[in-house]
Each structure stands twice: as structure tokens, then as C-alpha cells.
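Recall the central idea of this unit: under ordinary conditions, the amino acid sequence of a chain determines the structure it adopts. In this exercise we apply that idea directly, starting from the sequence alone.
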Amino acid sequence: MLKLAGRMGRAKPSAIMAVAEKAKKLKAAGRDIISFSIGVPNFLPGEHVYQAARDALSKDSGQYGSNRGADALLDAFLKHMQDLGLTGYTRANLSTGIGAKHVLYNLAEVLLDEGDTIAFPTPYWTSYVDIAEIVNARILLLPCPAGQDYKLTPAQLDAALATKPKVFLFNNPSNPTGMVYTKEEVIALAEVLVKHPQTWIITDDIYNRMLFDGLEYFNFVQARPELRERTVFVDSLSKTYGMPGWRVGFMAGPEAIAQAVTTLNSNHITNIPEVTTAAAIAALSGPQDVTTAKNLEFQGKRDQVMAALAAIPGVVCPRPQGAFYVFPDISVAFGKSHDGVAINNDIDFCNALLESKGVACVPGSAFGEPRALRISYTCPTAQLAPGMQRIQEFFAELK
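Accordingly, the structure predicted from this sequence is:
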């Protein structure tokens, strides 16, 4: 019998999308569903982005574009990086992709041979494990529970890097926890990274503009400039500009890595489409008022969700300061039941919550932390309070 490639036995569909699809089907069947599941910003970019796309359509060349990305797009991204404090890069240090997920997949292909080890903190974004398993890399998980605010410590990092993983992958601000490493915390981790020159570093920082409480973004390269030669910075338009469906991702790092990613592009996507490129340039270079306003709105929603969770006895949730997620430890519910349905783990909890209250959340086990669940609070504002009230009622009804 003919068989698929062995790697397909390691490939899994997105756990997040599975929850979102289930919620969508229930809603289509007439159920009143409030979804806190999928991590989309749920706002649209400014009019200038759409106008740039329309203008590009009117003068479409119909030609192939650059495998690396159009010069004007690369220049706009360089300016964006400079605004973040990441200077000294050129076009040769950059490449693009069909979203940050595509860039991360390319980086896995570029940096990891079969059997190489990639290390990253837990909780993690689901696709980190999925991508690593497809390329048949070994995975070294660094557990960071709620008791340490879901953050990696320098001692943990030092111990992990002593085993000489090929790649260390770092996500700040974090999906799924929303936690943000302070400047001082980034510096402390950077001091450890300097001691272990055998490991490549990827910083997945696509929420770098979504910071609350006056925090500012800070990167390992800013802390220790010598890390530039083995650090890759990954970014995206999806979250910051409300453009997840436009699929534009970026990387900045050593020239050899940028060229390797560009070579992979030449073998599969060829280039980002011309219209999408024009919209991306407008987003990066144009007015930032929509992004600024939404960041303030998300901070207010964060406060609303945290207040609701604080009223639930036994639920523990470190206070997130970025992105648009909260990640409460709901293990107090384990061993109980709701309307006769046993709650033995996070999956039981989320299934029962969806069926009984019509609230969709993603089980924490999808992110490597089975004691928790992820709430994405980008739903319409009018749905947030009712959704959190349903969660409170669910807990109150546990026996």
C-alpha cells in the first residue's frame, strides 16, 4: 500500500483552530456562543492600508516579486525595528514570509537538522512543538508554572543551555500567558546566553507593540550587542495592525540566515503578493493611531478579565502585561463535576464550559500547561462581561 511521508505522522492540526471550529459549528446551529478561543485581534487596519491596496491593484505589474521582499517593504520594516531600538540592520539581514508562522517554519528548516534540539519555555505557543516535530527535532521544554509568573529564570536557562541545544526559542510578550519580561529580566537572561555561544537564538516577539502599564519592549541584542551574530528577531503585521489574514511576517538576523530563508522562499512561495506588500508598507509607515487606541482598549479588557477571575475562589492568574491573553490556573476545578459531568482535567473543563455555558476557551494542555486555560479577550466589548460572568457561574456550580 502506498504511504504518505513519515513526517505527516508527526504533523498535527492546530489545537486552537479545533476549538474555534467547534465553537463556530455550535454557533451555526443556533447556540449563543461567546468565543475566547482564537488569538485574532478582531479589529481592522486603518483606511490608509486599504487605500494602498486599492492603489496597488490599479497599477498591478502582474510580475513576480522579490524572494526576500520588496525593497520598500524591507525599508519600512527596518524603520519599524529602529523605532523598537533595534538598529544596525540592513536589507541583507532581513527576509519575509506568509506570516510569522511561515517564517518560524522556515527558520526550523534552516537551523535544525533531524535530531537537533530546540529548547523553549512552557507554556508555549502550540505551533512551536508542531513545527519542531515535523522537522523531527528533539524538544527540550523548560517548565515555567504560574508560581513563577510563567517566566523563565536565568538558572533554568543556564541549565538548559549547558546541554547545548541547537536553538533556544523565546517569546516575549508571551502567547498564551500575556506575560512580559521586564528590561531587567531580559538583561539577566542575555547574560546567560552570552555564556553559551553554541546555541542559536530566535526571539518571537510579534506582540512587541502590545504592552501595558508603561512597559517598553526590550530585546537580547539591546542587552548584549554581541548576541546579534546568532539572534533572529521575528515579527508580524497580524496582531499589531489587525491584519492576520493578510499574512505578512518578517525576520531580522545574521545575513546567512536571512539568505537561507530567502532561498527557501524561492522554492515555495516565491514572494509576498504585490497588493499585500503595498498594504504592509502602508501599515508600517502610515498613521499608528488604530494600533495605539486598540492597545489602550486591550489594557482595559485585561483589567476587566483579571477582576472577574479574582472573584473566583481558588483560581490563580499571574497578571499579564501584554498581548491579549490571560492564562489562569483552573486546577481547583479538577476532581469536581458540573451537572453530573466529571471535570478531571483542562480538556474536560473546556468541553463542559462550552457545552453548558456557550463559552469557548483553549485548554492549557495545548500550550504545555494542563492546569490552565487560555482566554483571548479580543471579542466585541459587549460580549466580554457576559462571557466572564458565565465562567464565574460555571465555577459556582461545580460540586
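The radius of gyration is 21 Å.
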